[in-house]
Amino acid sequence: MTGRETQLLSVSPSASAVQIKAAYHRALLASHPDKRDTPGPDTPDIGLLKHAFNTLYTPSLRKEYDALRAASGKSAGPRPAQVVSLEEFEENQDAEASTWTYPCRCGGEYVVTEEMLEAGQHLVGCASCSEAIWVGYELADEP
């Protein structure tokens, strides 16, 4: 066990067996060489995905994994898949507020709102899957 099994499958530490199985299938499809346009260095090894699935899905291994995480004392929050500049987002101006969108590899999209910018929130989750990205921007000082 590496302690990173939940990160590899992009699931929360409290994910159910059904959520783990669905995340495993999504990860396999996303990393399959026939399904990707170009294989990249961020593509996880299928063997690691299989190990993560077996560890989290098998009740006895899951119990051991949870005990290991509890003993380490670390709570791993979401780890961003990538860092994206706000300049790469598409701006959508509405009569009320502006939003920015960026496509996710699952087909969904990341949405950043003005409120998120004002609050200094950089970690943004996809609206369709559990992947998160870190959005880089600087707050402008108003005169």
Question: What does this molecule look like?
Answer:
It is built from 5 helices and 6 strands; from the N terminus they run ααααββββαββ. The model has no long low-confidence stretch (mean pLDDT 81). The longest helix has 15 residues, at 17-31. A hairpin with a 6-residue loop joins strand 5 (123-125) and strand 6. Strands 1-6-5 form a 3-stranded mixed beta sheet, with no helix packed on it. The protein has helices spanning 5-9, 17-31, 46-57, 59-72, 114-119, and strands at residues 83-85, 90-93, 98-103, 109-113, 123-125, 132-136. The radius of gyration is 18 Å and the shape is elongated. It is α+β, with helices and mostly antiparallel strands.
Layout of SSEs?
Layout: H1 5-9, H2 17-31, H3 46-57, H4 59-72, E1 83-85, E2 90-93, E3 98-103, E4 109-113, H5 114-119, E5 123-125, E6 132-136
Parallel strand pairs: 1-6
Antiparallel strand pairs: 2-3, 3-4, 5-6
Helix pairs in contact: 2-3, 3-4
Question: What is this structure, in a nutshell?
Answer:
By secondary structure, this protein is α+β, with helices and mostly antiparallel strands.
